[in-house]
Amino acid sequence: MGKALDGVRILDFTHVQSGPTCTQLLAWFGADVIKVERAGAGDITREQLRDIPDVDSLYFTMLNHNKRSVTIDTKNPEGKQVLEALIQKCDVLVENFAPGALDRMGFTWERIQELNPRMIVASVKGFGPGPYEDCKVYENVAQCAGGAASTTGFDDGPPVVSGAQIGDSGTGLHLALGIVTALYQRTQTGRGQRVLAAMQDGVLNLCRVKLRDQQRLERTGVMKEYPQYPNGKFGEAVPRAGNASGGGQPGWILKCKGWETDPNAYIYFITQAPVWAKICNVIGKEEWATDPDYATPAARLPRLKDIFAEIERWTMTKTKFEAMQILNKYDIPCGPILSMKEIAEEPSLRKTGTIVEVDHPTRGKYLTVGNPIKLSDSPTEVKRSPLLGEHTDEVMAELGYSPEQISALRTAGAI
Ligand code: COA
Fold first, then answer.
1. Which residues are catalytic?
2. 74 Cβ inside 6 Å of ligand 1
3. pLDDT above 80: residue 302
4. Beta partners for 367?
5. 94 lines ligand 1 (CB under 6 A)
6. Per-residue pLDDT tens for 97-149?
7. In the chain, what are the domains?
8. pTM above 0.85, yes or no
9. Can you tell me which atom of ligand 1 is nearest the CA of 167?
10. Which residue's C-alpha comes closest to atom 15 of ligand 1?
11. Probe ligand 1: pick from 12, 34, 69, 97, max atoms within 8 Å of CB?
12. For residue 308, which of 10, 135, 214, 374 sits 20 to 30 Å off, Cα-Cα?
């Protein structure tokens, strides 16, 4: 079966996490992704957080599946010529260097257009144009600058960053959408274009509901679904909401059987209005279904703390999985707090290809997250990440270089 992006060639100039997330997705959709790395060193993540000496780290292998690797010294004049040949051959250049690095290499937008007017140049940067546009940025900086950290955590504690890599992997996802959109527009215009995904913008996009709340707060001074209501204080900015549900259906994380020793023996419980009577039945508080202090969502809002304490008395008598089984019978929305160990061992995730076991020539078998986006006509086959420079000769030959030329370029240190 063919793949959605068959025939699309990507010059992958990405490193660390944000850019590689994007190009890995494009590779899974069938694009030929040629990762250009610095000879000898390669993407810095190859050697970061290593768990086996001298073997590509999981950090690298889990972000660079289905790609080919070529090593080119793009500061060497002959290396630059090889890169020019690649630019002429490819449809998209993806990069996430520090601001200005591509220009300093000599590959400005104007120069790239001269070489290939159909080329799409896609970049991740920390910030868009403005006071911070020259800054280098990593994940947690983006979470802080994009509004995630100030709105995450508990009211009486400091800002908190999330384990979900919304700055890096989140921005990589945004960039991938920009690239396929630009490819689609090119079918009409014949022209390439620049695509920019700034990490601050990507995080803010994911924090959209918090900008909604900022404006609600300014208008009303209070937000009744936040844990600060009714006894706490609201200030000028959206406060941290602990584990409160983001939408109009109040929720909280509650202890389950075993919580004293298992840090993940918890369940997320949502007191969805349509199933309120069923919740009352399950926890043995049938009278709450008709009591005017509890019967309506508005009446419940000032009493949420007590309500969740009562529900927790029930959840603490069940394991999170037992509670799930019972609550699901009644269509009560809830979810177990799953540890990474439990997720790694979950058979259904293996079955769908969301968790995949991959074999690697120097590392052996390891687990990875497969393609989370499933296309019925373009199935994903997860292939191991390339060794450094593994495909240099192959790609050079495809560009028309003879074995003698390849050998001379290697001697000159260009590849
Ligand atoms: N041959 C020769 N030189 C190469 C090369 C190659 N194949 N590939 C890269 N380089 C050079 C670049 O030309 C540049 O050199 P210069 O600074 O002299 O112009 C340098 O390597 C690239 O370095 P830089 O991007 O500055 O890396 P860094 O390790 O110092 O910074 C980041 C890393 C992530 C902070 C930075 O790249 C960044 O802010 N990127 C944008 C935001 C981003 O994606 N952040 C998230 C990362 S997960």
1. 168
2. yes
3. yes
4. 357
5. no
6. 999 999 999 999 999 999 999 999 999 999 999 999 999 999 999 999 999 99
7. 7-203+348-410 (3.40.50.10540), 249-331 (3.30.1540.10)
8. yes
9. 46
10. 101
11. 97
12. 214
